[in-house]
Specification:
Length: 241
């Protein structure tokens, strides 16, 4: 099956937002989770994010064939158990909605959407070794980051500005929906047919840095910048008296 046909079969956000720069990876996963999945997870998280497809075979000519996975529920549970194990992965960036199964040609294919890690969480590495376990995405492959790359990520993380602070005591109810709607209308005018237009409000706010993932709660909360931009006045004053 040609790659373009597979892309046409996997509609909506499944493939279309990941087509550019080879931001998706097909893995057969017949014998369980492939070991290389964690290298790809690290690479996507440290670069521009991406989509991992389990149960899809990529042939030598770069065409794809849907093979499906056996017992997808068990495979997904194994994935969650491992991605939440800090002895294997430095941080879990995923929410429940990022991992799901679809039936294609009567076979189960698992989709894992890996977001780009916010700079305070990079580098994302595996096997408890930041220097040998940090990867980045280049073309269709996952490659070890150099010590210089890793040092730069640490510098970026250490100088994260105050506006990226995640306010764990707040949730999306502090936002004025009319303000968000107005901003999105402006964004849509300035960025015609941008892929973010199809996102729901929370995913859109995460993309622009108005909400962030807390390492304490494992949930999304407003950032300081998001509160100042879209928050109700009394909520802003409560945080910044």
């Amino acid at each position: 099956m040609p790659k373009t046909n597979l892309i046409n079969m996997l509609t909506t956000l499944d493939i279309t937002q990941f087509r550019e720069n080879n931001r998706y990876e097909a893995k057969l996963a017949k014998g369980g989770l492939p070991k290389s999945i964690w290298e790809t997870y690290s690479a996507f998280a440290n670069t521009d994010g991406g989509l991992i497809l389990l149960g899809v075979k990529e042939n030598a000519d770069h065409s794809f064939k849907i093979e499906g996975v056996d017992n997808p529920e068990l495979l997904i549970k194994t994935f969650w158990d491992t991605v939440n194990n800090q002895n294997k992965v430095s941080i879990n960036l995923l929410l429940n909605k990022h991992v799901y199964t679809k039936e294609i040609e009567g076979k189960s294919v698992i989709f894992i959407e890996v977001p780009r890690a916010e700079r305070q969480f990079r580098p994302v590495f595996i096997d408890k070794d930041v220097f040998s376990g940090t990867y980045h995405r280049n073309g269709e492959g996952d490659y070890h980051c150099t010590k210089e790359d890793i040092s730069e990520m640490f510098r970026d993380a250490s100088v994260a500005s105050a506006d990226t602070k995640v306010l764990t005591e707040m949730d999306e109810s502090v936002f004025c929906m009319e303000s968000i709607k107005g901003y999105r209308n402006i964004f849509r005018t300035l960025h015609i047919n941008h892929v973010w237009d199809s996102l729901d409000n929370i995913d859109f706010l995460r993309k622009i840095g108005a909400v962030g993932l807390s390492t304490e709660t494992g949930k999304l909360h407003p950032t300081a910048a998001g509160l100042l931009m879209f928050g109700y006045e009394y909520e802003i004053i409560r945080e910044f008296p």
